[in-house]
Amino acid sequence: MFDTLSGRLDEIFTRLRGRGRLNEKQVDEVLREIRLALLDADVSLRVVKAFVKDVRERAAGAEIHKSLTPAQQVIKLVHAALIDMLGKEASGLAHADRPPRIILIAGLQGSGKTTAAAKLARLLKSQGRRPLLAACDLQRPAAIRQLQILGEQAGVPTHAEPDAADPVAVAGRALALSRGEGYTDLIVDTAGRLNVDRELMAQLAQIHDALDPTETLLVCDAMTGQEAVNVAEAFSSEVEVTGVILTKLDGDARGGAALSMTYVTGRPIKFAGVGEKLADLEAFYPDRMASRILGMGDVLTLIEKAESAFDEAEAKKMEEKLRKADFTFEDFLSQMQALKKMGPMSQVLGMLPGMSKLPVGDMQIDEQLPRIEAIIRSMTMQERNNPHLIKGSRRSRIARGSGTSVQEVNKLVKQFDDVRKMVKMMSSGKAGGGMRLPGGLKVPPNLGL
Amino acid sequence: MLEGLLPQILVGLALVLLVIGVVAARRRRPSGRRGATRMKDFEAMERAGRTAVETPTRAERDKGEEEEEGEEGEEEAGPLPETAEAAAPPRPSLRDRLVKSRRFFAARLSEAFGGGVGEDTWEDLEAALIQADVGVETSTKIVARLQVAAKERGVSDAAELKGLLAEELIALFDSVELGRDRALAFAPEPPTVWLVVGVNGTGKTTTIGKLASDLSHRGKGVALAAADTFRAAADEQLQVWARRSSAQLVRHQPGADPGAVAFDAFRFARARGLDVLLIDTAGRLHTKTPLMDELSKIRRVVEKEGSVTEALLVLDATAGQNGLAQARKFTQAAGVTGVVLTKLDGSAKGGIALAIESELGLPIKLIGVGEGIDDLEPFDPKTFVNALLS
Fold first, then answer.
1. A107, A142, B34, B381: which one has the fewest Cβ atoms less than 10 Å from its Cβ?
2. Domain carrying residue A186
3. How many CB atoms lie within 10 A of CB B68?
4. CA–CA separation, A308 vs A317, rounded Å?
């Protein structure tokens, strides 16, 4: 996500690097590039204009820090402006004065409302709440069934009336039920509707009025183009939108719609859909997203995931080993298992700063890992702890055991050794200005923390 | 705050680096080889597809001529592009349905053409195109061409300029010489297989329902394969459409292998002597390699015994520039032969269609203009462009 936008800005700033102070002409050039990059990222034109204007004003009034290069200053400005536009901080769901908290889900066809509703239900349930789903999409064939099935998977009951014709009435009855049975939350799934469809938009307003929801969440596909402003405008003029759920963020869409949505509605993005499983709903952190847009990576998310995946004492021990380069295959194996808990490797890598430049997507890392694992598992414990033992007949035995070739085993041992040395250098802070990874990949200098 | 987390971060980073290093070094050999074979497969597939396509289309048409008048009348109402050439006047409904998009666009255009033709005009024009999701690059190209053309012909009048723009846009669609490829191809021997693919939520199942209904109306026997075994109730959704369009449905248990569903459906269609098999697949993001491989597999499995003459990519008109990436990746995985542009009844203009055609040479074959069973129409550049600009 946002890959190309990061890439574009990276490009601009690489060109700026090493230049002296920015003059006005250069600022213009940078702004033009930013405009282009944002448009390419599907940020709506109107929003781009406002954003660029904002950055220009900030640039004019900015103090000049001697400690920052011009490029860094621009990055800081753009970063701050992006955060401002995306919303200052992560915002959870509002609390209702008295239960149930009513959450109305609305959006275009195919934006992912039903899935988002079920994911939200699962999330609330995991927080110890008692949510009820209401199937008010009476338009699309089998939409009710879909919500029922997803509800079952999430372990959340669904109020459904397969033969009903009026979604407003269904919503009303669901509300009565949730009150009567003491549910803490009512999540109402609605039919997808086009923003230009007067009749259905009016119907949405009726559902809204009947429920008087605490939260009205507009579901938006991250791949949406310029249309995002029109959608946001239409929905927020019909009902009081309180937040946005941005879906399908696990793709490679640059996600400019996120900016358009928050700009027009003035409401935060509350959740991000990042996968097809019910657990794949995350809080949306504007600062991280802004960092990500700027190619600074999503380090905070990585840290958070690392925290839950690694035991701290264990991690300290590993760090020590890494520093001294006596990190072994056995350690690698055990840490790889922990890393796996953080999600698919390709996703984890995407969160690292500067990784947008690496062809991570093409490397099929997740497909390659099992082979690496197989090789290591075919080593004896002694070999794993002393990789230099792996020679001659040991190599061919390992290759046979793992169903790979001697060359592959060789390569892995060699790479492991190289990387181990490199990591040692890195963790002792000796490496600066980027370093070369085996395999011809360059690690950007800003990777170091 | 970062201090306490440093060990975790370091270990995480180091591991990630190790993985990258190791994987990067390893990947060259296998992926290189695989890539090469794939390219060959594609070429072969394409060649096979071409030959399969030409003959049947002609055969179909001949058959149509031989048959009685009544059926021809029916065909004219249908959405399939093969009739588009014959049916000269476009159905008014497209215009009606595009009226909203037209209004937005027209308002912007009359802004652009309001005063004399000056620097602002061109800038506004470019903005209008960008806002239609045409993309910065293509928009700039179009405006540059328009400027040249306007100068050559000495156009300074707003109305004339509009006509010129329409010409330029139509020329963009025609320049790739895809006009003839907009027809949906039938196999020489039934059952003809059309595979329907796309990212999540673009309208694959709905499109299949509409296609099935149209084919049924033309007297063709239709089978639907519920190869979306992932999304909850996707098969039930398809079942509703099968009932509405009097098509036969082949489905397995949820979570079943989609390739197996497709294969069974093919055998079923052949055994029953049905004319067309439409395969519904699960929505998938084009960045997920295993899922894209699964799509290749579905195609391969069916092609063991039959031939897939169309792999239709269903694209949401609200999609932005990511539509291009989708079209590229799906073409790599499933050999996409054409695009169905859906949800054109909204205010989204579907401008990415322009870029997809001009950059990838993928013809837009059909457009979706509503949730009704008849809301599928052939894509006609002239009608499309004129409806947008009028």
1. B34
2. 101-290
3. 7
4. 17
Please indicate whether, in this complex, the C-beta atoms of A319 and B352 are within 8 angstroms of each other.
no
Strands (E), A126-250: 131-136, 158-159, 185-190, 215-221, 243-247
- Asked if residue B212 and residue B112 are part of one domain, the reply reads no
Domain boundary among A290, A314, A343: A290
What pLDDT does B128 receive?
83
Residues 345-374 of B with CB under 8 A from A: 345-348, 351-352, 371
Computed on alpha carbons and rounded to an integer, the radius of gyration of chain B in Å comes to: 23
Are A140 and A22 in a shared domain? no
CA A119 to CA A279: how far, in whole Å? 6
| Among B277, B264, B268, B296, residue whose Cα is nearest residue B197 | B296
What are the residues whose beta carbons fall under 8 Å from the beta carbon of A1, sequence distance 6 or more? A222, A249, A250, A251, A252, A253, A254, A255, A292, A350
**In this structure, what CATH number is given to the domain that contains residue B128?**
1.20.120.140
Same structural domain, B117 and B202: no
Identify whether B139 is part of a domain: yes
How far is Cα A431 from Cα A445, in angstroms, rounded to an integer? 9
Residues from chain A that touch B294, judged by Cβ atoms under 8 A, are: none
* Same-domain pairing of A370 and A273: no
Whole domain around residue B203: which residue ranges? 186-336
Q: How many domains does chain B have?
A: 2
> What pTM value is reported for the model?
0.72
Q: Which residue of B has its CA nearest to A191?
A: B371
> How distant is the Cα of A98 from the closest Cα of chain B, in angstroms?
33
Tell me the pLDDT tens digit for each residue of A348-404: 666 665 554 455 445 566 777 788 888 999 999 999 888 888 888 999 999 999 998
Q: Which residue, B320, B325, B223, B356, is CA-closest to A258?
A: B320
Evaluate whether residue B365 is within a structural domain: no
> Is B136–A40 a contact, with Cβ atoms under 8 angstroms apart?
yes
CA distance A25 to chain B (A): 21
Q: In sequence order, which residues have a C-beta less than 8 Å from that of residue A124 and are 6 or more positions away?
A: A131, A184, A185, A187
